Amino acid sequence: MTATDSKRTARCGCGALTATVSGDPVTVYVCACLCCQRKSGSAFTYAAVFPSAAVTIAGERKAWRHIGDSGRWIESMFCPTCGISVGFQSEGMPGMTGVSVGCFADPGFVPPARLYWASRRHTWIALPEGVDVQDTQDG
Ligand SMILES: [Zn+2]
Ligand SMILES: [Zn+2]
After folding, report:
1. Can you list the residues of the chain whose pLDDT is less than 70?
2. pLDDT recorded at residue 1
3. Tell me, which fold does domain 9-119 have in CATH?
4. 112: nearest Cα among 11, 27, 54, 52
5. Contact, 69 vs 33, CB < 8 A?
6. 106 C-alpha to center of ligand 1: Å?
7. Distance (Å) of CA 104 to CA 12, 18, 50, 72
8. How confident is the model at residue 121, as a pLDDT?
9. How many CB atoms lie within 10 A of CB 71?
10. Which of 17, 34, 59, 111 is the 20 to 30 Å CA partner of 130?
11. pLDDT at 126
12. If you ran DSSP here, which 8-state letter would residue 52 be given?
């Protein structure tokens, strides 16, 4: 993907909650920590991080906060109707908003630069060359 000023919109399952982002993400990662496995109902989360000023959230939402395997809080926002998490903020990323990449429904989205908590990933997960693999999470 090339740098762009265009906007992209991530949506929950029912479409009521959206996160519209402008510009490219600061970073894109996947995280296989056990919290992320539960939160996503899958093997990992896949998140794109933007400056909060570049993210516009619209629609009714609820939030829940929990302590991640990193020991820091993470607050996820989700649609009260379908329950899908569209984005989050966290203690470890002040001023930033993470958006669930799957909610963009764009198979051409920026691939992850990093895998956090590789030590907890499902054993079948192999990663392409060039992904920075971290056994835990440093930041
Ligand atoms: Zn929804
Ligand atoms: Zn995680």
Report:
1. 1-5, 138-139
2. 46
3. 2.170.150
4. 27
5. yes
6. 18
7. 9, 10, 14, 26
8. 94
9. 9
10. 34
11. 87
12. G
